[in-house]
Amino acid sequence: MNLSKLLTPQVDSNKLNYSALVLRIGFGFLMMNHGFGKITHFNDYAPNFMNFLGLGGEISLALAIFAEFFCATFVAFGLFTRLSVIPLIFTMLVACFVAHAGDPIGKKEMSILYFCAYSSLFLMGPGKFSLDAVIFSKRNS
User: Fold this and answer.
1) Which residue from 44, 89, 42 is spatially nearest to 61, judged by alpha carbons?
2) Is the overall model pTM greater than 0.85, yes or no?
3) In which region does residue 124 sit, left (phi positive, over 0), alpha (psi from -120 to 50) or beta (all else)?
4) Each residue of 126-139: pLDDT tens digit?
């Protein structure tokens, strides 16, 4: 392998598409696991769940489940990706700066990592290996 290829700042579009695929699948399915845990233990979490918006613990938990399970599923499959990462970005910011506001960085680290991944996906889009590409390339043809 040529060392100059590793050091060049240019981005190959195929590598960008594969990178988007890896980010979407990895962070989508990992986040789905968090959301699924909240779904299966809803009654246990709801009474003590953080009431960030003043809507009550149950509604706040339902919104977190919507982001962490349903939006993450859309992200993993590349469906409405840019719209789907918005609730996830918001949820990770709340987790980091509200739920874990007084905690050390080690407790905030996971939400920061998810925030960075979802922000990157928002900026670069889902890539060509996504349902968005299938749906919207046919529509634009």
Assistant:
1) 42
2) yes
3) alpha
4) 999 999 999 988 76
Alpha-carbon gap, residue 66 to 62, rounded angstroms: 6
Dig out the tokens for 86 from the structure: 């918005």
3-class state of residue 107 by DSSP: helix
Q: Which amino acid is at 9?
A: P
Q: Residue 120 in contact with residue 11, Cβ under 8 Å? A: no
Question: Do 111 and 120 meet the contact criterion of CB atoms below 8 Å apart?
Answer: no
Question: The tokens of 105 are what?
Answer: 């960085």
Q: To which residue do tokens 């905030």 refer?
A: 108
> What is d(CA 124, CA 86) in angstroms, rounded to the nearest whole number?
14
Query: What pLDDT score was predicted for residue 8?
Result: 78
First to last CA, the chain: 38
